[in-house]
Design brief:
The protein is of the alpha+beta class and about 290 residues long. It has a single domain, classed as 2-Layer Sandwich (Alpha-Beta Plaits), CATH 3.30.70.1230. About 45% of the residues lie in helices and about 25% in strands.
Length: about 290
C-alpha cells in the first residue's frame, strides 16, 4: 500500500545559506576507540560539534520569543547546512553565526585532536561557506506523523562549494560569497560594493583605480574579510568573488572585531553580550 503525503513548495525566500564541513570524518570514525563505558569517542566529539553549530545559530539570532526561529538547520553527518530566512537580517545572522562557529569549532577540534585522534589518523578540522540568494522550502508530510522538510537553492550550492576552497588556503576556514558580502556592505555600511567593482572595470586612470581598490579594501577590513580572487566553482556557471574571514582578526578584544560585532548586533546590547558570553565561555573551557 502506498501512502499519499501532503507535499508543498513555497515561493522563493530571500536567505543566506551556511555550510559547515567536518574534515577527515570517515577516517576518524573508522579508527575511533570506545571508552570504558562503551562510548564511541569520535561520536561523542561529533555530538558536541553539532551542538556547538546549533548553539552558534541560536546566539547569532536575537530572541524571537514564542515565534518560529528564522533559520532551518539540518545535518548530513559530516556536515551542517543552515538557511537563515529573516527577510531583513538573514545575511547579518548568517555572517554572525559563521564568525561564532569559527571561534568555537576550532577550539573543540583542537581539543579532540590532542586527546582523541588515534596515531596515524588525520586530524579533524572544518570549513565554512556562506552565500546569500533565494531558497525554496520543500516539504512532504502526513498529518500527525513525521515528514520531510528542507530548503533548496543556488546559494546553498555556492556556500557548499565555497567551503571547499578553504581546503587549499592557509588560515582561511571561513569563505564568504559575493552576494553575502554585497548585502553586508549595504546593510552595515550603506555602501554599494558591486558598483565599486563595476567602476574598476571602466576606463579610469591609475590613480582613480587605486582609490577604488583602497575603498573596497577599507570595506573588507571593516568586515574582517580579505578578497581572495574570482573562483570558478563546481556547478556554478560563472566565476564569483570570494572573501576569507581573517582568523587573526576575529578575536574578542580586537577593536576592529569588537566594532564589527556591535554592527552585527544592530546596537542591541543584550544580544551583543549574549554573543560575547557564549564565545568567551566556549573558548575558555575548550
Amino acid at each position: 500500500m502506498i501512502t499519499t503525503y501532503e507535499h508543498n513548495t513555497t515561493p522563493a525566500i530571500p536567505a543566506t545559506a551556511l555550510v559547515v564541513d567536518l574534515r577527515n570524518f570517515t577516517s576518524n570514525l573508522t579508527a575511533s576507540r570506545s571508552d570504558a563505558a562503551g562510548r564511541n569517542l569520535f561520536c561523542a566529539f561529533l555530538a558536541e560539534f553539532h551542538a556547538l553549530c546549533l548553539d552558534s545559530c541560536r546566539v547569532a539570532v536575537p530572541s524571537v520569543g514564542q515565534s518560529k526561529a528564522p533559520y532551518l538547520l539540518w545535518t548530513t553527518g559530516d556536515g551542517i547546512v543552515v538557511c537563515f530566512t529573516d527577510p531583513e537580517a538573514h545575511s547579518r545572522h548568517g555572517f554572525l553565526a559563521a564568525l561564532v562557529m569559527q571561534s568555537v569549532l576550532r577550539k573543540v577540534c583542537a581539543e579532540y585532536n590532542r586527546t582523541g585522534v588515534p596515531r596515524g589518523v588525520p586530524k579533524t578540522s572544518f570549513g565554512i561557506g556562506l552565500e546569500s540568494g533565494h531558497v525554496w522550502e520543500v516539504s512532504a508530510y502526513l498529518e500527525g506523523e513525521s515528514g520531510i522538510k528542507t530548503y533548496v537553492g543556488h546559494c546553498i550550492n555556492v556556500a557548499a562549494r565555497s567551503q571547499e576552497v578553504s581546503k587549499t588556503l592557509h588560515r582561511a576556514r571561513t569563505i564568504i560569497g559575493s552576494q553575502t558580502n554585497q548585502l553586508l556592505v549595504e546593510g552595515l555600511m550603506q555602501e554599494d560594493y558591486s558598483q565599486l567593482v563595476k567602476s574598476t572595470r571602466e576606463r579610469v586612470d591609475d590613480a582613480r583605480y587605486l582609490a577604488l581598490e583602497e575603498k573596497m579594501n577599507e570595506l573588507n577590513r571593516a568586515l574582517c574579510l580579505g578578497f581572495i580572487h574570482l573562483h570558478t566553482l563546481r556547478g556554478v556557471d560563472r566565476p564569483i568573488a570570494l572573501f576569507r574571514v581573517s582568523e587573526s582578526t576575529t578575536r574578542l578584544g580586537n577593536p576592529r572585531f569588537d566594532a564589527l560585532l556591535v554592527r552585527l548586533a544592530a546596537g542591541a546590547h543584550d544580544h551583543l553580550e549574549k554573543v560575547r558570553e557564549f564565545v568567551n565561555l566556549q573558548v575558555q573551557t575548550a
